[in-house]
Amino acid sequence: MASGGSNAGSLTQWLREKGFDEDAIGRMSRRCRNLHSLDAGEATGVWDYLLDVVKIERRKLRHVVTKCPKVLTLSVGDKLIPTVQCLVTLQAKPGEVAQAIVKFPQILFHSVEEKLCPLLAFFQTLGISEKQLAKLLMVNPRLISYSIEAKFSQTVDFLVGLGIDKEGMIGKIMAKEPYIMGYSVDKRLRPTAEFLKSEVGIEGSYLQRVIMSFPDILSRDVDKILRPNLVFLRSCGFSKDQVMALVAGYPPVLIKSVKHCLEPRMKFLVEQMGRDMGEVVDYPQFFRHGLKRSLEYRHKVLKQMNSRCSLSEMLDCNQKKACVDIVMASGAPTINTEILGTYSAIEALKKFARLECPEDDLDNPFTKILPVIKSKKVLQSYSVLHN
Predict the structure, then answer these.
(1) Which of 143, 196, 278, 312 measures 20 to 30 Å from 66, CA to CA?
(2) What is the pTM of this model?
(3) How far apart are CA 83 and CA 126, in angstroms?
């Protein structure tokens, strides 16, 4: 390696050529003290390998180097190539190794080969296959840096203590929420579980089902997120039992933004739809639906038809299917598929709504039930949904 003075100037110029400004170079120098002792030629080798072989986008590669400048000091032959090849053998999809490095550049400093075998053995006891482990590592590459004894075992013991102990259950939780293993049991997971039990009232099998269906809830901060949402729900007039039913039926209700999600939907439900808030208890997934694209559109359809149906009948279908389902739920006669022939209800409605099919087109079997469609305002409701 050449002398430090000439290397410093050479590397600084090289970094400028790669698009790093003076502020970024200064931060990188503070993060990696021996950075400027590095030869620009060695840095070029690392840069070119990550850019051309691993296929990290240039913009993202600058982010990686800024975040972890020590990456430039790695030996391409002795460290980078073996580590990347090991990650590739995990049957990662194209581009996933690059994404993993961008998320957690420090993965390149770990002995992946040495850690993979014990990690795989541990996760297999939880019902996680090698293929699933590969997926978890690509989503959360930081897992490779955790200790089995100090980190993973503690989290598993905690979940078992909550009654989540049946074969494969913890593996399913990890598959849904790969980041859960990174949180402190004592500082985050246990306080959240205690909050759900003591303040929300969810215990035993109900708590297990909530965690299984939405494990992300355990990783949320009680004071910053969960408690404010609980306070809002109670301020709406929901009783403790109703709140418990809401959370059990749709756990994300405790993490959704009060300002941007919960409050405007409750306001629309009561003031615009004229419905009782108790209907939400019967259908907690109400909070999952978009205000503009789903709630307002479908309410507009029902209002124009002067019809009414339950929230689940109104919302439990995709937008294309919504019109027909709402009409049927609100009392329109069943459309005979034999009469329709090769026309689906939706396609036929599309044609009539867009006036692509004249009423006297006798070759169109849907014409035979046009009077029924008009009388029930199906045509108008479809137009409302799609205009």
Answers:
(1) 143
(2) 0.74
(3) 26
